[in-house]
Amino acid sequence: MADVPEIEVVVAHSERATVRAGDVFLKIDADPDHADVEVAAMALAPVPTPQVLWHNPPVLALAALRGRALGRLGEPSTAPATAWVAAGAAVRRLHDAPLPPWPGRSLDELATRLDRECAWLVANGALPTDLVTRNRHIAEAALRPWTPVFTHGDLQVGHVFVDGDEVTGVLDWSEAARGDALFDLATLTLGHEERLGDVLAGYGTDVDLDVIRAWWSWRSLVVIRWLTEHGFDPSAPGCEVDVLRARM
């Protein structure tokens, strides 16, 4: 019998799970549309992505990427500044690419989600009311018209892999769609605000920093309930609650 590689559970919750077996990642998603979008987006994206080995819903098999994640939320990034600059340049290539054929979330949807999650945070005493009120006011600046670009949609720092100053791949494209460029930039730098200058140096164009800060508040506010309900801790040092407190 051939040696069976050790199985590592990368992430697991009620909506999806990812396990690693040797150099293969297996993603199991309760919603088959997520994997369909992921495969289509990776085929269109002008940046390095994992190789699709096979796709048999609800399972998607991907090859492992070379290098390591650019960073992790709640931990200082040890990647050099040049790696963050390279990440910014990769994001710019994505945003300059032709739009994907499917739409993204509307302003009304984003505003409704902000309203709903802020109401839940206050009603359940999950966060102090003044913290929610202040960050909601900041977040509303992100909800303005924008020119849509090809966005990753969930460009967390842990989804960008680098080797030295080279981006070797970008993971988890299930939320890719037409959207606001500054949302991607804000997601990438969430909890790593000191790296924003490096990212923008690679991105190579002026952006509205107030809108990026607004997206930091929006994203942190809307994910806290989901994180809590799925066994994650948004109040861990450097994570979403600390991002909100920094706005005070």
Provide structural commentary.
The chain has 248 residues and is α+β, with helices and mostly antiparallel strands. The chain has one domain (67-246): Aminoglycoside 3'-phosphotransferase, Chain: A, domain 2, CATH 3.90.1200.10. The chain contains eight helices and ten strands. It has a five-stranded antiparallel beta sheet with strand order 1-2-3-5-4. Strands 6-8-9 form a three-stranded antiparallel beta sheet, with helices on one face. Strands 7-10 form a two-stranded antiparallel ribbon. Helix 3 (107-123) runs antiparallel to helix 4 (129-139), helix 4 packs across helix 7 (209-229) and helix 7 (209-229) runs antiparallel to helix 8 (240-246). The longest helix is centred in the C-terminal third of the chain and has 21 residues, at 209-229. The N and C termini lie far apart (60 Å).
CATH class: Alpha Beta
What class would the helix/strand composition place it in? alpha+beta
Strand tally is 10
Tally of separate domains: 1
Q: Within the CATH hierarchy, at the fold level, what is the topology?
A: Aminoglycoside 3'-phosphotransferase, Chain: A, domain 2
